Amino acid sequence: MWSSTYRPDKPQVGKVELRRIGTFFTPYNAQNAIVIACIFVAQLLGIAPALITAHIIDKAIPQKDFHALGVDCLLIVGSAIIAMLIGVYQGYLNSVVGEGIMRDIRTRLVAHLHTMPIPFFTNTKTGEIMNRVSNDVDNIDNVVTGTLVTIITNVFMIVTTVATMFFINWRLALLAILVVPLMILPLGPVGRKMYDIRKKTREKRDQIESITQETLSVSGITLIKSFAREGHEKSRFYDVGTRLMKLEINLAMVGRWFIGAITSMVVVGQAIIWFGGGWLAIRSEMTTGVIVAFVALIVGRLYGPAASLAGIQVQIVSALAVFERIFEYLDMQTEPYNPPGAIELPGIIGDVRFEDVHFSYNADREILAGVTLHIKPGQMAAFVGPSGAGKTTITQLVPRFYDAKEGDIFIDDPNIKSVTLESLRRDIGIVTQETYLFHDTIATNLRYARPDASDSAIEDAARSANIHEFISSLPEGYQTIVGERGHKLSGGERQRLAIARVLLKNPRILILDEATSALDSHNEAAIQEALVPLMRGRTSLVIAHRLSTILSADVIFVVERGRIVESGTHAVLLARGGSYARLYRKQFRDEARITAT
Ligand code: ATP
Description:
alpha/beta; ABC transporter transmembrane region fold; Rossmann fold; 2 domains; three-stranded antiparallel beta sheet; 9 strands; 63% helix; binds adenosine-5'-triphosphate
């Protein structure tokens, strides 16, 4: 269970079990079996031309048999065509498996992240998350797609070659195999080194991605330009880029040394065979032809594949550094979507109760210090109080974006901790100050609330939210693209779109954070009008910044230092002459005077 003090705990994955990586391959067992069969058939077909050639030289030509010669030539062409077709099919299957696994890992990661609690996102840089989802997954592509084929092909080649070598001369065969363990020696240290460097490069790439994300967003670039900090940002990026460059050079050099070491082993192997075979030849126990054949065999079909397997082993070990990062995210605790025994919240009436609710974001500071309140179905409750008092926090506990540390929250009857998150959030609509819109059309953004909404339902909602006329005046109407995060629209227009979106969702409970920023009188009036149908018939929790809102509230809660210090209607609270009256005089009296004049 994640708590209100949730931090993205980073579990020590340690040595990632290869078995866990293997589970990604399991759904593709059938295709993999066919791939293996294809490799065997293709390898066998690869031997055929040599055998047929021998038949041509030894039988067809000496016996002047034209028919056999023709058949042999056709067989050479036929076996090559079949091998090619099998190769193409195997390549296709290989792509299906590899790309399928990549899609599966990516989807699992993104779906898992969607179930992560909000504190994870407030504590983690977006760039880091993006880097893991896209670049990290791309980074394991070569391991996932090529490994199986390379391993099977090379093992098959090594086994058949070793058998052939023993068949030809067992003493030379033993000598040739002697070198193979030497190839394995550098695997441990090289793998570890590459793993370490790879881990560091991934972290540096996190930083690069974070800087890119932060500085190239609309808000980020506006900030940079307004403070003329382009030079600073360039050197910050250059510094991280330089550190990454050094790591990448390091990685390339380790790889280069490794290839050098393995290549040297191949030469050592040849020398050993020449020495051993030469010694036998001098003693007339072997012909030169056999030594030549042996050297050709070990270079092409023994050391070559052994070096390739060694390369794969190193690649897998260093890829573990990336897999660990992926597993680290997959192992993080998600929101309790369906906690044990959770019930579906039936269609709700909208009675909201807080009982002695305590909350803190971090262990060191209590933000809510015992909030008790009751909002009856259909009531509009306004929350007022100084900045930082905890008004937003109170509203965020209702859809369980955060969980109370102590105390309970009830909707109708059930404690919100005992219901499924889907059913709880289905009936809650939220309009925040920061309206988020996808870079898509107005229609698609509105339909996000109700994918099956008809065009007329969308227009009705837009009409109620006082934005239909504006949308219709645009050349492309509802098909207008709103731009990154809706930045092509004004703040007021974005907020009215957000209101239309919630109207489409038609929730029983509404959470509204009124915009603090001053809007022009036209937009202000348009939003106030849009709010009327939004609040009608719903239980509303409004963080109020407008006098008109608090005047029409059924109940006002005054929040101070994480407590409700007063509650009641405007008239009652004003008459009491306490916190509300002071706040009203400070914050709203000027507005009241302006409204009156
Ligand atoms: P305002 O009227 O300025 O929006 P508010 O009454 O809505 O203020 P909250 O946003 O609830 O206040 O914040 C209450 C306190 O909690 C503030 O002191 C704030 O710094 C702190 N706080 C808010 N969000 C977080 C967070 N994600 N992590 C840590 N502290 C936070």
